[in-house]
Design a protein that fits this description.
binds phosphoenolpyruvate, 248 residues, single chain
Length: 248
């Protein structure tokens, strides 16, 4: 049985005041709650870990460098993220792949760097609107998974997030049939490649998940949770998504 996971990506939003939302989440969970991970900007990681201490909420980074240290101005190593008390890191988000020209090979190296630092990698993949329109979705995301997921991935060190780029921050969401199709295909690919571990690696859906659509999305049997951007910024939006996941 795969444990459900609700992950929030705050992106480049928030100052220390936003940690009150995290504080609310930290004190609102019941025993039925799924795993919860909040990924604030790197500047807030230490404070966020402090606020989440002793609660069921875990903290993650939004990106890491593939190297462990060196002359990489502005970058942050996975070990630095782990040193704040964080347990996860997002890698290969489309805003990194597109905005920072990150290739599958770079993303794969980041996944390995995350593992080496003792972090769980939340590996993102997803097709563009043009690729969806060209009927290339399954081929594109299978290729991304193949190239950016290392062979020794396990359910204990990796989560895969399928995020159609055209659905991120747009309010557009694939149909339930499309979500089922992509996640079923990804599950089959994972099992084909990794066997038992592939059956256990969690698959998240990401892209305009809101309180109003969460329960429908979580009907898909291979959706084990969500990676949520905008709706993770307020506890009043994120909590109903957590609750819908717990009830799914
Ligand atoms: C994301 O940033 O990963 C994301 C899915 O954003 P949103 O929920 O705002 O579409």
């Amino acid at each position: 049985m795969r444990r459900k996971l609700a992950a929030g990506n705050w992106k480049m939003n928030g100052d220390s005041g936003l940690l009150d939302e995290l504080g609310t989440l930290a004190t609102s969970q019941t025993a039925q709650a799924p795993q919860i991970v909040i990924c604030p900007p790197h500047t807030l990681l230490t404070l966020a870990s402090f606020r989440a201490q002793g609660s069921p909420v875990e903290i993650g980074g939004q990106d890491c460098h593939a190297e462990t240290k060196g002359a990489y101005t502005g970058d942050i190593a996975a070990s630095m993220i782990a040193n704040t008390g964080a347990t996860h890191v997002i890698v290969g988000h489309s805003e990194r792949r597109d905005g920072h020209n990150e290739s599958n090979e770079m993303v794969r190296a980041k996944v390995q760097a995350a593992w080496a630092a003792g972090l769980n990698a939340i590996l993102c993949i997803g097709e563009s609107e043009a690729e969806r329109a060209g009927d290339a979705t399954l081929e594109i995301i299978a290729a991304q998974l193949q190239a950016s997921l290392p062979d020794d991935a396990t359910a204990a060190n990796t989560v895969v997030a399928y995020e159609p780029i055209w659905a991120i921050g747009t309010g557009k969401v694939p149909t339930l049939d499309q979500i089922v199709e992509t996640h079923d295909m990804l599950r089959a690919e994972l099992i084909d490649r990794l066997g038992v571990e592939g059956a256990q690696i969690r698959l998240l859906y990401g892209g305009s998940v809101k309180p109003a659509n969460a329960a429908e999305i979580f009907q898909a049997q291979n959706v084990d949770g969500a990676l949520v951007g905008g709706a993770s910024l307020k506890a009043t939006d994120f909590q109903p998504i957590i609750d819908a996941l717990a009830e799914s």
